[in-house]
Amino acid sequence: MNCSAPMHSLRIALAAFIVSPFCAVFAESSPSTPPGSTAFVWDELIPKVTPNGKRRDVVNRPTATLVKFQSHITTLNPGLASHPPHQHALEELIFLKEGQLDVTINGQTHAAGPGSVLFYASNDFHNVRNIGATPATYIVVNFGTAATATAPRERAADSAAPGRLRSQVFEWPAAPSRVSRTAERRDFFNAPTVTCENLSCHSTTIKPGEAAHGAHRHPDEEVVIVKEGILEAMMNGTVRRGGPGSIFFFASNEEHGLRNAGDTTTTYYVLRVITAATPKAVSKN
After folding, report:
1. What is the mean pLDDT of the chain?
2. 173's torsion region: left (phi>0), alpha (psi -120 to 50) or beta?
3. Where are the domains of the chain?
4. What secondary structure letter does DSSP report for 189?
5. 63 and 251 Cβ atoms separated by less than 8 Å
6. Bridge partners, residue 225, by sequence
7. CB-hemisphere CA count at 13 Å for 124?
8. 5-274: CATH number
9. Once rounded to an integer, what is the mean pLDDT over residues 169-182?
């Protein structure tokens, strides 16, 4: 697609604005010891009023395998947009807790209802608008890796190697599901991205008192987001519970387990990321 000189200059300026602060924040905030597994419980997240609705800040820091791990939760009032279409090198995911959105990706609009998962590849233009009659609430997760600062500044996924995950909307009803003895699982995606060696997302639904599997550990870092019900997380011997909108981060190679602690079914999203910095598996001993 041909671009006018002013538009091309604007895109380059936007990309430079996004990438430079990203590198600066990492340089200033990198701790000597990466954070361990953590629970971000919905009821403990303080909402702040914004011109468009409300915002709950969750986390903004590097991890053992990510240069940047940022998350916040937005509540968008009816008829309003999150912001004008913009781009950034960080790859972004949105989990729609409630409401109806129009999702714009590189000028194309897509509908998204409750439970939908949105993925924005590096430097694709995007925004959302609440088209419903009630507020829309969604969880935002941004990833930055060692490859983020050098990602192409326009349509990065289009110029990357074949098979890279592209920006799109994964609607809840369309996600393939399968039922086992202990759980129901919906698969959204499992593929490399422009900046991650692999990124996968699925949801799990479990009955009261049940666990999808026993406590375990793995080298890839994991983010779990509660969609409905009460989820109990065991992290290195510490137990935390959280309802819808709560987020659990499981650090690389740290033991963790999940159980439905409520009296109704519990559903949660599982997001697992592998980067060039992901370590090898470690022994339990």
Report:
1. 88
2. alpha
3. 5-274
4. E
5. yes
6. 247, 269
7. 27
8. 2.60.120.10
9. 93
**Which single residue is written with the structure tokens 């990198």?**
30
Residue 189 has pLDDT above 60, yes or no: yes
> What is the spatial distance between Cα 81 and Cα 131, in angstroms, rounded to a whole number?
9
Greatest pairwise CA separation for the chain in angstroms: 61
- Distances in Å between the Cα of 211 and the Cα atoms of 24, 51, 144, 264 are 41, 41, 31, 13
Nearest to 45 by CA among 256, 180, 237, 246: 246
- The torsion angles phi and psi of 253, rounded to 5 degrees, stand at 65, 15
**pLDDT recorded at residue 34:** 64
- Arithmetic mean of pLDDT, 220-232: 98
Q: Which of 92, 106, 191 is nearest to 144 (CA)?
A: 92
Q: Does pLDDT of 6 surpass 50?
A: no
Residue 83 reports pLDDT greater than 80: yes
Residue 283 confidence (pLDDT): 66
